[in-house]
Amino acid sequence: MAAEIRVPKLGMSATEITIAEWMHGDGERVERGEVIYLAETDKTTTEIEAQASGIIRQTGVEGTAYPVGALIGTIEED
Description:
The protein is an all-beta fold. It is built from no helices and eight strands. A hairpin with a 4-residue loop joins strand 4 and strand 5. The radius of gyration is 12 Å and the shape is elongated.
């Protein structure tokens, strides 16, 4: 089963985030709690951690803005 990577709500006024940088490449293994990408709003940059361990599959593109709740990847759990 795959765990979804969705854009989190960061702050009261943020309606979208930009993926500043993926910290792992597509197809790489990640562990729960590792930083998987940097989320950027107009006010801050936040490290987002993996909620599961497994193989990361990215659908979100660095430098692109996504609305809160958007699916930007999955983690294929072992």
